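pls read this protein.

:::
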Amino acid sequence: MLENLRQDFDSSELIQEAEPAPVRKWEAPKVPTVPDRILGMTAPQRFIISLLLFVMTFLLGALCLMLSGRILPPF
C-alpha cells in the first residue's frame, strides 16, 4: 500500500521543476524626484487656501469674542 502511494507521488505533477529566473539587464537606480505639487495644488493655490484659512480663523475668533462679551464693536 505504501509502495503504491510512493509511486503515485513520484509520478504526480505536484512537484514541478523550478524554472530558472529570467535574466534581467542591470538598470540604473531611479532617483526620487521632489513633487512640485502637494495635494494636487500648485504653490499659488496653496497660498490662497492658507490665506483663506487665516482670515476665517481671525473672523471666527473675533465673532466668538464679541458673542462672549469680551470685546465690543466700536459702533
Summary: The first helix runs from residue 2 to 11. The mean pLDDT is 83. DSSP finds two helices and no strands in the chain. Residues 5 and 11 are 10 Å apart (CA to CA).
